[in-house]
Structures are given as C-alpha cells and as structure tokens.
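We treat protein structure as text, and this decision shapes the records that our systems exchange. The tokens are whole numbers drawn from a learned vocabulary of local backbone shapes. Below, we set out a record of this kind in full and without editing:
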Amino acid sequence: MKDLKNKVVYITGGTKGIGLGVAKSLLAEGMKVAISGRTQQSVDQALKEFNNDAVLGVVSNVAKMEDEKNAVSKILDKWGQLDAVLANAGVGNFAPIDEMTDEAWHQMIDTNLNGVFHTLKASVEALKKSKGYYITLASLAGTNFFAQGAGYNASKFGVVGFTQAAMLDLRKYDIKVSTIMPGSVASQFNNNEPSEKDAWKIQPEDIGELVLNLLKMNPRTLPSKIEVRPTRPDKK
C-alpha cells in the first residue's frame, strides 16, 4: 500500500495505549481508522482525542465472535472497504500457576488468543477483496517464558504460532500477515499509568511508525515476525 490515503484500518483495543497511538499515526497518513473497545464509555472517551470524521468508534469484546462480526459490518457500512486490521486487544494476569484462577486464565486465552481468531474470521473476506494486511500485536512473551507468566505466555506463544500459520494460508489471496512482538511499552497495560519513569520504554507512536512501515512495504516483501525492544532497558 504505497499510498495510504483513504485506506481503511480497524484497530481492536484502540481506545488507549498502543492501539490509540497507532490510530493517531495512521490518521496522520490520511487513513480512515476504526477503533474498538469493550465499553461505550471507553470508546466515547477515546473519540475525544480526535476531531476527525475519519475516525469511527465501535464497541466490541474480541472474545465474542458476534461482536467482531458486528464491528466489521459497521466499518463496511460506513466506508465500504477494509484494507488493514491490527488485532491489538489484550490483557495480562500474572501469578504463579498454582495460584492462577480459572477466570484469569480464560480471560487471557479468550481475549489474547481467541480474540485474534475472531477478528481475522470476521474480517478475512473483506481483506480478500482489498488484498489487505492483517497484523497481530503479540509480545516478546510469545517466545520468552518467565515465572508467573504461564497464562500470558500461553496466549502470546499461541498468537505468534497462529499468525505465522495464517500467513501461510492467506498469502495465496495476496493478504499480508505479520506479527509484532514488543518488549516493554509505555502504556496502560497491567494497570500501569505512563509517566516520565517510562521514558526508556517503547512508546505507542513507535509501534505506529512500525505499522506504517509494514503497510508501505513493497508488496513483494513480507516481514512476517518482528521483535522490537527498548534500545536501553531501565537499570534496576
């Protein structure tokens, strides 16, 4: 997609953090952006960040297939096309496996892993028509396991594997599929409130720049799995 002007992108979990940062980057390139959140309140709050007719807010819980189908339907009703999707919605619950609750485990699997499947299934026919791009937001936790991360690791290892297999399935339709695997990002993830102490971390706009680079990449070339980390980690 050399020229991104008026191309349509859907960003799940787009009401804050990485998703909101990417939305701002893509809007600056002239794209039309749909962002989703789990509640009307979160969507309305995010829309206050924009004064732009090129933004659509939709309520969707990615853990529910029907929600994602409805979200994509609203995007197509408004703009008639869908050119790119960033499956960004995610949650993290961290505890030793013997202390992790059933609820915490299923919330992560349902959102982080089932969610990327629901989003792709809901959007894939539109992406076939546009020869579009599907990008998942995984994590370095998708290849690096750590204590108290069994549930999160399981979900993100799954996202990485799912995305790579989907890439092989969909490239025959000229759909590009990539996964981005960030390390520490200055966002609201895990109840963090970004501040000056997070200046060393990857910033949401950095992921936005990375997404733009992927969308502008020559059609013959596909960076299918991208690890990204802070240049200089915080000194403990």
